[in-house]
């Protein structure tokens, strides 16, 4: 969920070149850039080494599993939101599998206990429901000499700086995490026997100062329980690989926490792993006029970059410049920083399938290719075939500049999702 990035901050993109053989790459296509991806992983590995925390990849934001052979060399495992992600992590990543879901169903738990290391519940009731299955699985594991499933509870520390509200798990009436009062009740009535971890997830694209403030609330509300735990999971939303992220503060916070409470610490970022290490190629299919010039592309905000509409934000387009729409004498005008200004829109029938307004040094023509920056997280995991629009291919640009096509989608993918 990239936030609105200020034009000046992304000036680095303006001088960027296009990849080798750019015109021969498929369009549309999500392209992972191996070199940048590995740099993210190396930085995260350094945070693990210097802080002693374990970092898990949240598959919710990034599940490009053909890249897991690389990711698993650096990270400690994955975090799953439910059975499918847990299974993908188990099959393609290995290492530690943590699962948190707001609610589990019986048949899901039967499968999850086979493959999870940590299972985190959102309520005492769910923990009670599945205690039996977990205990019998653990007896089996003990006989086989395998590590046991460890159980955690997600709590609500009643503090989050995330906006908009749709991404804030601490809004009034939130269903995510056990609030302090309910936790106290549960701990009294049911006890914490069998619970070895606490989990909170209250960040989104935040720096470590937000974690510092959050920890105060987490500690304030749960301090009597924390020392009984083997691990505390600080959730995701730590924007560790962003340029201005204060890594030293993060490391210090983790070290202080670990030494004060004698627990392990986990982080489970998704976005920080796929941050700014890939793009989406799209092509101009038509250019129409309606007071302003509108380029219709083969990529869609609604189908391929849904966060552009959800957040909402305007993604960066490589070698493009700003353009602003305004009304002059009741007429819509596009004023660009560069002479040729366009509104970029998708091929769906949704009127609001608009990516944004941009200007260019040269006029756009049908067949031109555009690069939408930072498009490998929260895109492929969320895209859809609305309007029957074809899904973009997925590939990787290797360190040596060679492109590898991982996946092409066809009509069958569209047809098989329906019946
Ligand atoms: C979404 C989510 C994450 C990952 O968040 P990012 O913002 O991608 O870092 C981690 N843990 C939980 C429980 C989540 O819901």
From TrEMBL:
Main enzyme class: lyase
Query: What are the protein's GO molecular function terms?
Result: diaminopimelate decarboxylase activity
List, alphabetically, the Gene3D superfamilies matched: Alanine racemase, Lyase, Ornithine Decarboxylase, Chain A, domain 1
Q: Which PANTHER family match?
A: CARBOXYNORSPERMIDINE_CARBOXYSPERMIDINE DECARBOXYLASE, DIAMINOPIMELATE DECARBOXYLASE
Q: What is this protein called?
A: Carboxynorspermidine/carboxyspermidine decarboxylase
Tree of life domain: Bacteria
- Name the family: Belongs to the Orn/Lys/Arg decarboxylase class-II family. NspC subfamily.
């Amino acid at each position: 969920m990239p936030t609105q990035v200020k034009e000046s901050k992304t000036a680095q993109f303006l001088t960027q070149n296009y990849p080798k053989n750019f015109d021969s790459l498929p369009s549309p296509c999500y392209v992972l850039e191996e070199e940048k991806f590995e740099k993210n992983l190396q930085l995260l590995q350094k945070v693990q080494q210097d802080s002693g925390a374990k970092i898990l990849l949240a598959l919710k934001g990034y599940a490009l599993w053909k890249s897991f052979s690389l990711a698993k060399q650096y990270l400690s495992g994955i975090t799953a939101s439910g059975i499918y992600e847990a299974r993908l992590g188990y099959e393609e990543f290995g290492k530690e599998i943590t699962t948190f879901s707001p609610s589990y169903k019986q048949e899901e738990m039967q499968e999850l206990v086979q493959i999870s290391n940590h299972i985190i519940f959102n309520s005492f009731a769910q923990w009670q429901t599945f205690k039996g299955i977990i205990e019998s699985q653990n007896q089996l594991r003990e006989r086989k000499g395998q590590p046991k499933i460890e159980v955690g509870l997600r709590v609500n520390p009643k503090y989050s700086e995330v906006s908009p509200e749709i991404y804030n798990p601490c809004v009034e009436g939130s269903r995510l995490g056990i609030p302090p009062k309910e936790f106290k009740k549960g701990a009294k009535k049911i006890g914490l026997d069998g619970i070895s971890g606490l989990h909170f997830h209250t960040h989104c694209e935040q720096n470590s100062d937000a974690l510092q403030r959050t920890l105060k609330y987490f500690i304030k509300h749960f301090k009597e329980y924390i020392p009984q735990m083997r691990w505390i999971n600080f959730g995701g939303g730590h924007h560790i690989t962003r340029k201005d992220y204060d890594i030293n503060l993060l490391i210090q916070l983790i070290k202080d926490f670990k030494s004060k409470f004698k627990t392990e610490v986990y982080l489970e970022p998704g976005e920080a792993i796929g941050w700014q290490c890939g793009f989406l190629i799209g092509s101009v299919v038509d250019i129409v006029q309606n007071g302003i010039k509108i380029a219709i592309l083969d990529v869609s905000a609604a189908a391929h970059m849904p966060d552009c509409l959800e957040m909402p934000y305007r993604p960066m387009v490589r070698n493009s410049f700003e353009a602003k729409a305004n009304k002059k004498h009741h007429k819509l005008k596009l004023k660009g920083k560069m002479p040729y200004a366009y509104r970029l829109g998708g091929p769906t029938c949704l009127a609001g399938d608009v990516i944004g307004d941009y200007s260019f040094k040269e006029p756009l023509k049908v067949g031109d290719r555009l690069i939408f920056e930072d498009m490998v997280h929260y895109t492929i995991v969320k895209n859809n075939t609305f309007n029957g629009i074809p899904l973009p291919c997925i590939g990787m640009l290797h360190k040596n500049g060679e492109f590898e096509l991982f996946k092409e989608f066809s009509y069958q993918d569209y047809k098989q999702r329906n019946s």
